[in-house]
């Protein structure tokens, strides 16, 4: 594979750059990058940010665990359905 890359000429590479490819790169690469740069995030003090993230992670975990517990109680032979 490396040999193919090293033997590629400029003419071969130029044929790959089509208007559709350029549009694809602009729409899915350049525009999202510009949007990412434009957004300014204001962070709180590190310990408040950490506490917020830990609380959100705990709530998410509890919600997922509650859903899993309901499935275990409702579905007979739940372990058999997971292992299939």
TrEMBL record:
Q: Which InterPro entries match?
A: EptA-like_N (IPR012549), PEA_transferase (IPR040423)
| Keyword Glycosyltransferase in annotation | no
A cellular component term, taken from the record's GO annotations: plasma membrane
List membrane-spanning regions.
20-38
Q: Which GO terms describe its molecular function?
A: phosphotransferase activity, phosphate group as acceptor
List, for all copies, the residue spans of the domain called Phosphoethanolamine transferase N-terminal.
1-62
User: Quick one: a GO biological-process term for this protein?
Assistant: lipopolysaccharide core region biosynthetic process
Q: What is the superkingdom listed in this entry's lineage?
A: Bacteria
User: What are the alphabetically sorted keywords of the record?
Assistant: Membrane, Transmembrane, Transmembrane helix
Official protein name in the record: YhbX/YhjW/YijP/YjdB family protein
| Organism of derivation | Neisseria gonorrhoeae
């Amino acid at each position: 594979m490396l040999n193919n890359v090293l033997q590629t000429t400029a003419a071969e590479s130029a044929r790959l750059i089509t208007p559709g490819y350029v549009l694809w790169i602009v729409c899915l690469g350049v525009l999202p990058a510009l949007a990412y740069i434009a957004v300014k995030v204001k962070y709180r003090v590190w310990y408040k940010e950490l506490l917020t993230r830990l609380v959100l992670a705990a709530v998410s975990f509890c919600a997922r665990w509650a859903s899993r517990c309901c499935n275990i109680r409702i579905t007979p032979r739940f372990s058999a359905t997971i292992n299939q």
